Amino acid sequence: MSIRLTRRAALVSSVAAGAALPSLSHAQTGPSPAGEALAEAVDAYVKQALAAFPDQPAVSIAVVKDGAPVLTRGYGVRVQGEAARADEHTLFAIASNTKNVTAAALAMMVDEGKVKWDEPVRTYLPGFTLSDPVIGERITVRDTLSHRAGFGLGAGDLLFWPNSDRSREEVMAAVPFVPIEDGLRARYHYCNLMFVVAGEVLAAVSGMRWEDFVQSRILDRLGMSETVPMATLADPAKSALPHARIGPPLRYQGEMVQIADSIAGVWNWDSAAAAGGLCTTATDWAKWIGLRLAMGELPDGTRLFSEDAAKEMWRPNIIIGSSEGPTAELPGRAIASTYAMGFQVQDYRGERMVTHGGGSPGGISATVLIPGRDAGFSIFSNAEESYLLRALRSGIADIVMGKAGFDWIADSVRLRDQSDAKSIAAAAEIDAKQAAGAAPSLPLEAYAGTWRDPWYGDIVVSQRDGGLWLDFTHTPALKGPLEPYDGETMRTRFPDKREEDAFVVFKLENGAPVTATMKAVSPDADFSYDFHDLRLTKA
Prior knowledge:
This protein is an alpha+beta fold and about 550 residues long. It has helices spanning about 5-10, 35-50, 100-110, 135-140, 140-145, 170-175, 195-205, 210-220, 275, 280-295, 305-315, 385-400, 410-435, and strands at about 30, 60-65, 70-75, 90-95, 245, 255-260, 280, 320, 335-340, 345-350, 350-360, 365-370, 375-380, 405, 450-455, 455-465, 465-470, 480-485, 490, 500-510, 510-520, 535-539. Helix 2 runs antiparallel to helix 12 (about 385-400), helix 3 packs parallel to helix 7 (about 195-205) and helix 12 packs antiparallel against helix 13 (about 410-435).
């Protein structure tokens, strides 16, 4: 598990998750500000937060209250070191905030009688199966949208993360081989792969590819003319380009740098678009927030989906976590955090909150709806400053809800500094273990060959320049030297420092390596580097 505020936290954690400053008291409650006063309060708070996180290139904010946008604004620059400013029309990758659009698309099919939430997937995709065939028979459309299929966290993400050469059809062909670690509906495990399956259900029943349906039936209908359903369609000249810290000593440490010349350069999820493809602007996403708060009703009085479908998409399907509730030290802690369909639903300071996050290389985002106050907001970012996102998400929520008394900015800075110190110490420990490690028991050439995993495919280890070279054959960025670490454990040194390195642990039988497993080197590694799900055998 990461020792940092992880991408998983950015995606679906409680708005106010994490430790808090013990000296602060319970928030005081007051009426929600409205209109211009709300816009001014949020604007001032965003500027204050950005001053505390000065390396952030740009953010974009949308706030909707009582059916109308009261703030749509960009802050900062689209590219670090350049003059072009971000504004309300700047495109950002919103990654997993796409998931509630996919759920809504299927809700439209439910309204039309073409899909039933609790019908097995194989009703719409004949022959569909999973590595656990019983789950493959029973898994429903609702399950694919609820992170309760039994897969482990991030299982199968290496099929499309980092940028892969696989088509959507090839991803779907690999789905039956991805390992399952839990029972169907037993526990919550965040799973992008099942949203890819949900997108294929949509394609099967609508006769349109996911991106064509979303464009013609949702974006065009809402007048979201600035939004594109896939990052490969995002014009770099209109985009906030991705930035990150890529070391040393570890990913998420070091100087903030631009990591690609386009969003798609580091975030091409066309093959998994239903899980995270959308790029949008504050202006356009305000329209989506307004639609969701209006329970599917469009401004002209017509509907994109029914009120019944809207309610069903917010009905909890699996428990994410629970606690004893808020305290003076943890004022935003939820009693129960749940996942519905494409949205997390939880309590926050005694009210219902509907929320989701998104994390891509070089960008994180959040959507927060507070239905009881007819209010919602979004935050888009073109860097991986997760503690800034935490400060903005919780602080803006408190402003919208008329609460005061907790300094989310100071608390997030404190947590970031603590996390950085732990990460630096972990990096030193990793290097020390390699320096003290035993030599491999066999000559390096004995480990060379083609190593095959049932769902990923081939990973080739070859001899090069007196050492070993590892090649994830479907992932251009995951290619580089493979070094001895400790005995039969080796580690990669990918030249592309945007990516996470991996340990490779070889198992010997009769004096020869025959199988291998992998895991991420860094404790901070993003969960989508699901190296640990690989089960390699020598071909």
